[in-house]
Amino acid sequence: MTQFNNKVAIVTGAGRGIGKAISMKLAAQGARMVLADINPQDLNSVRKEIEGQGGIAEAIPVDVVNSQQVQEMVKQTLQKFTTIDILVNNAGIIRDASLLKMTEKDFDDVIAVNLKGVFLCTQACAQIMAQKKEGKIVNLSSIAKDGNYGQTNYAASKAGVAAMTRTWALELSRFNINVNAIAPGLIATDMTAKIPQAIKEKMVKMIPLRREGQPSDIAELACFLASKEASYIQGEVITISGGFKF
Questions:
Q1: Phi, psi (5° rounding) for residue 102?
Q2: pTM (global) more than 0.90
Q3: What beta strand segments (E) does the chain contain?
Q4: 122-162: pLDDT as tens digits
């Protein structure tokens, strides 16, 4: 498939899990990839995998909380590929604890990466998209945006992503930029692998489809939202959870 031929896509948190799956899917459909992650080793592994399958990829280590590094990521992207067509804001962390046990640092770190990082990357890339009056932005929220035990920081950050998604859809529509978000449920990643097995089994029983989702499930939706077929979808937060609700 070649629906993203000549399109340039930046994916943050591209080194593992959902970010890697999205990057691989976009590359397989012809996109020229900019892989952004804080872990250079993971990045280079994904880059080599894409190139081994005939794709084109550039690996750029970046801390999405650092505005200078984000600007440098955009600068390098333009130097290499001259434009930016697609941005997938996937980078995120968790630091779970109940309200009475959560540290200020754990709260600040999650808000910084999951919320401020999305703001910085979108602001930098949207300026390029606005100039050419075209672009696709896909943000990763979570079903935890509605609240979840032990995730004050994470839930707040993902609710913020949902709110920013709607706000940016209103602001950027005049530039023909689509902004949407995905709210995954329980997806089999390194992050969810840290959930105690007993708790995970209880969660799976609450999912009508009776299984965890896979990163590829999210990648399919992300690629659709980045495609021309989704050009009339705007400002939406789409849940993909196998029917699971907290």
A1: -70, 135
A2: yes
A3: 8-12, 32-37, 56-61, 86-89, 135-140, 177-184, 237-240
A4: 999 999 999 999 999 999 999 999 999 999 999 999 999 99
The helix (H) or strand (E) run that includes residue 167 is helix 152-172
Using the 8-state DSSP alphabet, how is residue 12 labeled? E
- For the annotated catalytic residues, the residue numbers are 154
Rounded CA Rg of the chain: 17
In DSSP terms, which residues pair with 33 in a beta bridge? Answer: 9, 57
Strand partners, 140: 182
For residue 115, the 8-state DSSP code is I
Distance, in Å, from the CA atom of 246 to the CA atom of 233, rounded to the nearest integer, reads: 26
Query: Interhelix angle for 17-28 vs 215-225, to 10°?
Result: 50
CB of 160 closer than 8 Å to CB of 180: no
Find the distance separating the first CA and the last CA of the chain, reported in whole Å.
37
Instruction: Specify whether the CB–CB gap between 102 and 82 falls below 8 A.
Output: no
